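Example 3.2
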Amino acid sequence: MSAAAPAAVVEDTPVPTKGKKKLIIIIAIALLVVLVGGGAALFVIKKRAAAAAEEAADESAATAQQDPAEQVGHRVPPTYVALDPFVVNLADKDAERYAQVGLTLEVDDPKFAAEMKLYMPAIRNAILMILAHKSSAELLERSGKEALAAEIMRESVRPMGIEIGPDTPAERGTTAAADGDGKAKPAKPRMPPVHNPVRRVHFASFIVQ
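Structure, written as tokens:
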């Protein structure tokens, strides 16, 4: 019998320790770079999102403060309150003259228009009192009609508890009065003008006879 060949001994070739350490270090560095890069990117994204949200909030606040009818791209149709025509004797002394006036009030919003209707008897009375103190000469002039419209704007909201001051810039500003010695006293600041919900007065008809 032939002698059996010795069994081949297979030995594991050990991986050098240095190689393992280098591989681990490379992997760790790669992971660190990925984590740091991802965190930085996330931080930048969050910062930009916060800035965009803040800018949008500022724009919304600015838009809310604007007159709805003046918001660009969001124009709101005007709200009108039509009054029945007024027929009134004028204040002419040399002759008996009267005026027939039809007018419409342009107001801020439908809610205020609905509220005005509840006060309509008092509002009509206020407008009639204005007309009754006008002369035909005043009402026939354009300047007289403009002055009448300004008075109606002011007096039509007074029954609703809204007190509107003078419309002229000089009267809205500060005033200086003189004391007993003729010396000017320091100007007294006036209160800021009150918002008038009645924006315009439109005349539908205007007859003076």
